[in-house]
Design goal:
The chain is built from two helices and no strands. The protein is an all-alpha fold. The chain has one domain. The longest helix has 67 residues.
């Protein structure tokens, strides 16, 4: 009979060891998931900031493009470089 008692104790210890191991593994998995979630939140915040910066840059570039292509600016640029309106003899009309 002492052998059966020893086997029951041994089975109990094995079950306890298995449960402790399972608890440890699940705890580590929870910590890993939490760390990944925090890391992802930081990455997302960085990407949102980059997106915001890119939107601001796109707006500034659009304003600059409109400024450079404005009729007033183009006329001024033409005058600075000696460009004038073409005369009637310089214009060719294409007929269909």
């Amino acid at each position: 009979m002492p052998e059966k008692k020893k086997t029951k104790k041994s089975a109990g210890y094995k079950l306890l060891a298995f449960m402790l191991l399972a608890t440890f593994i699940l705890g580590m998995a929870k910590v890993w998931v939490t760390v990944e979630r925090v890391d992802m939140a930081y990455r997302m915040e960085r990407l949102q900031e980059e997106h915001r910066d890119n939107r601001e840059l796109r707006t500034k570039l659009s304003i600059e493009q409109n400024n450079l292509l404005s009729p007033y600016r183009l006329r001024q640029f033409g005058r600075e470089h000696g460009l004038t309106k073409p005369g009637d003899e310089q214009v060719r009309k294409i007929r269909k």
